[in-house]
């Protein structure tokens, strides 16, 4: 883990939307800058492959070890942030 990654204590919704945009793009009909925390990823235009890429990017960029089953119970950005931030806090 690099020094920059060591400083990360929590992933914000802004961090997540930035990663989502760079990993899988952005549906033109969806405003990721709006209140998306409780929107289903499918409603935001992100399928399971896009989410896998997003999780891989979070793991890589932030040094967070996320298991293969991380997406089993994740339906919204709030859900994903909760899982990621619990993992960061436990590290």
Describe the protein's architecture and organization:
By secondary structure, the chain is mostly helical. It has one domain: ACP-like (Non-ribosomal Peptide Synthetase Peptidyl Carrier Protein, Chain A, Orthogonal Bundle), CATH 1.10.1200.10. It is built from four helices and no strands. α2 packs across α3. The chain is globular and about 35 Å long. The relative contact order is 0.21. The N terminus is likely disordered.
Question: Any chance you could write out the topology, listing elements then pairs?
Answer:
Layout: H1 3-6, H2 13-24, H3 48-62, H4 77-90
What's the gist of this structure?
With 91 residues, this protein is mainly alpha-helical.
Q: What is the CATH topology assignment? A: Non-ribosomal Peptide Synthetase Peptidyl Carrier Protein, Chain A
How large, in whole angstroms, is the Cα Rg?
12 Å
What portion of residues belong to β-strands?
under 5%
Largest sheet: none
Helix content: 40-55%
Q: Structural class per helix/strand content?
A: mainly alpha
What's the total number of strands? 0
Q: How many helical elements? A: 4
Q: What is the assigned CATH homologous superfamily?
A: ACP-like
Sequence of secondary-structure elements: HHHH
Low-confidence stretches: 1-7
Average pLDDT figure: 85
Number of spatially distinct domains: 1
CATH class: Mainly Alpha
Known CATH architecture: Orthogonal Bundle
Q: What is the terminal-to-terminal distance?
A: 12 Å
Descriptors:
single chain, Non-ribosomal Peptide Synthetase Peptidyl Carrier Protein, Chain A, 4 helices
């Amino acid at each position: 883990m690099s020094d920059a990654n060591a400083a990360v204590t929590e992933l914000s919704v802004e961090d997540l939307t930035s990663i989502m945009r760079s990993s899988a793009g952005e549906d033109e009909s969806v405003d990721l800058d709006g209140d998306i925390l409780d929107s289903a990823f499918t409603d935001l235009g992100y399928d399971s492959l896009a989410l896998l890429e997003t999780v891989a990017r979070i793991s890589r960029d932030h040094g967070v070890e996320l298991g293969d089953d991380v997406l089993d119970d994740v339906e919204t950005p709030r859900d994903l942030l909760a899982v990621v931030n619990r993992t960061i806090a436990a590290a």
